[in-house]
Write a structure and sequence with these properties.
Blueprint lengths: L30 H14 L1 H14 L5 E5 L5 H9 L4 E6 L2 H13 L6 E5 L13 E7 L8 H10 L1 E10 L3 E4 L12 H19 L10 H7 L3 E12 L5 H17 L6 H11 L15 E11 L3
Parallel strand pairs: 1-2, 1-4, 2-3, 4-5
Antiparallel strand pairs: 5-8, 6-8, 7-8
């Protein structure tokens, strides 16, 4: 399942402001447009993922098989292949065009012999895996599945004895801008967070077979028959002045928010977003010297003991 830029990993109805990649109804998405944004975001977050993988390496040393459940265009799948040179990695996604990009990336990086792909919708498509997995990564993909408890149970069933499920969910909303921007009313991003939470709740409620769940991820891992083995948050901290790729990421994120949250923001904030997105405006994210990226992701792990 791919994911729309960002947030929580995003797509389709992906969190317009919470991602990294994975949804499920791929019919109305122009992947030719979306895929480069997904790739650019994952590449920008590579330092954070490097820290995640070092931590996972302590919990699942030398895995033979790593499955990226909701891989999108495969940036993170390839990072897993590099982090675990003895592993075979399978990128799983509902979008074949994104998996094509994953295969192309693996070929460019000399990883084609160790990266495979599997197209289909989570969690059912995991039944097609030939072997149980030592490490299953679900990066912001679970919240795009209606029945998260049932999906976790399905994920757990695909683990080898002693295998680890790593679930990226939660964390903190991204911050790009100071509280007082010098334009509009101070506190823009905090107000956008409120609108996003409402959007996210509606997205969850509208998923097929949606079941409301208290987001106690360790308890949910335990309900899937796993032994919770750790929770840790990881920070991406890109202080001002940021690189051109970081500026492009922020512009893409704010543009998605501007489009997705059209009905939830007032005229003044809409006008502020328009100025922030106008490359000709000195106050825009394309030109400001105070732009930064600060984002926390939280990863929860559980082990199959039986």
């Amino acid at each position: 399942m791919a994911h729309a830029p960002h947030g929580h990993h995003g797509h389709e109805g992906a969190h317009p402001g919470r991602h990294d990649h994975h949804g499920h109804d791929h019919t109305d998405i122009d992947w030719a447009v979306m895929a480069p944004l997904l790739e650019a975001q994952a590449e920008l977050f590579a330092p954070l993922y490097g820290k995640v993988m070092a931590w996972l390496g302590e919990k699942a040393p030398e895995p033979g098989l790593v499955v990226d459940a909701g891989s999108g265009p495969g940036v993170i799948s390839c990072l897993f292949a590099e982090a675990f040179p003895g592993a075979r990695v399978v990128a799983v996604d509902g979008s074949e065009p994104l998996l094509e990009r994953a295969r192309a990336r693996a070929a460019r990086l000399g990883l084609a012999d160790r990266l495979g792909t599997l197209a289909g919708e989570l969690p059912g498509v995991l039944d097609e895996l030939e072997y149980p997995t030592d490490l299953l990564w679900a990066g912001n993909s679970l919240h795009h599945l209606g029945d998260q408890r049932a999906a976790l149970a399905a994920f757990a069933e695909r683990l080898a004895p002693g295998g680890t499920l790593a679930l990226l969910e939660g964390g903190l909303p991204a911050r790009f801008l100071p509280r007082d921007l010098g334009i509009g009313r101070p506190g823009l991003q905090a107000r956008l967070d409120v609108v996003l939470e409402d959007w996210f709740a509606r997205m969850r409620a509208e998923l097929p077979g949606s079941v409301a769940e208290t987001e106690d991820w360790s308890a949910l891992l335990a309900s899937a028959g796993l032994k919770p083995s750790g929770t840790r948050s990881f920070l991406l901290d890109l202080p001002a002045p940021v690189s051109d790729p970081a500026r492009a990421y922020v512009a893409a994120e704010l543009n998605r928010l501007r489009e997705s949250l059209e009905n939830g923001i007032d005229d003044e904030d809409r006008a502020t977003l328009d100025r922030l997105l106008d490359p000709e405006d000195e106050a825009s994210v394309h030109r400001r010297s105070d732009l930064f990226v600060l984002k926390a992701y939280t990863v929860h792990t559980g082990v199959r003991t039986g």
